[in-house]
Specification:
Blueprint lengths: L2 H6 L4 H8 L3 H10 L6 E3 L2 E3 L2 H15 L4 H10 L5 H11 L8 E3 L1 H8 L4 H9 L3 E3 L5 E3 L2 H12 L4 H36 L7 H46 L5
Length: 253
């Protein structure tokens, strides 16, 4: 690297390429996609700085998390200013709550899992967003965890059409819970931040609040569900015990 780059923190495109391990061609491609801000041009030479290095590192980080360049471009465009802290916040917004690698299944594999080739079930699963059809005729199972639950329920004798409607009901309730937590974040974190003028130095604080809210929301849902499941089970089997008692002792009716 040149003495000028060391002294001022400015790099030509060749120096930026060496510093980041990217090719000049890829750097130019990132610029043309709007992923990198343009360099400062003096004379005929463009000069890049530490912010360009940070942006390239952030892009690599997002790619490693499964974001493609088009998704990253949309996030960059949505950022309220050119800093990387808003980008990190938007990155966190787009990050899945549960890291899962989607599973690719053929129609035959789905039929084997579901014990049926009913096209209505396939259409319903796609409508609910659990499956995504791909161009080669296969299907992306967006949540293999949900697929494993389906396998277990099938082993217990629960038909797939009943499973899908149960999953649709769970999704409806989950949407309401998610909206409640998003509203909580907006009212108590985001709006005060916006009212303060969205100062640059507070972006890390807002990001930290979002990151803390994610596991808190999941933990609260699990905790409340555990209580609800216990109470519902006790109530249901209380009724069943009464039925059994009455069946065995008609005089108790």
């Amino acid at each position: 690297m040149s003495d000028v780059a060391d002294a001022t923190g400015e790099f030509t495109i060749d120096e930026l390429a060496r510093r980041t391990g990217m090719t000049v061609r890829n750097i130019r491609a990132h610029q043309s996609r709007g992923l990198l801000p343009p360099p400062e041009v003096r004379g005929r030479t463009g000069y890049y700085g530490p912010k360009h290095v940070q942006r390239i590192e952030l892009i690599r980080e997002m790619q490693s998390q499964g974001f493609n360049l088009e998704a990253i471009r949309r996030i960059v465009e949505a950022a309220p200013n050119a800093g990387d802290e808003p980008l990190r916040f938007l990155q966190a917004l787009h990050r899945p709550y549960v890291e899962e690698e989607p599973e690719i299944l053929t129609g035959d594999q789905l039929a084997e899992r579901w014990h049926t080739k009913d096209p209505k079930l396939l259409a319903r699963a796609i409508e609910l967003g659990f499956l995504r059809p791909l161009e080669d005729g296969t299907y992306e199972d967006r949540s293999p965890r949900l697929g494993r639950v389906a396998d277990e329920l099938a082993d217990l004798g629960v038909p797939m059409d009943i499973q899908l409607e149960l999953a649709a009901s769970v999704r409806e309730h989950a949407d309401g819970i998610a909206q409640a937590y998003v509203q909580l974040f907006l009212e108590h974190v985001w709006q005060p931040f916006q009212e303060a003028g969205a100062p640059d130095e507070r972006w890390p604080e807002v990001l930290e609040a979002l990151e803390r809210l994610r596991p808190l929301a999941a933990e609260s849902v699990l905790a409340v569900f555990a209580l609800a499941m216990r109470d519902a089970t006790e109530e249901a089997f209380g009724r069943e015990r009464e039925r059994i008692k009455q069946h065995r002792d008609p005089a108790a009716r």
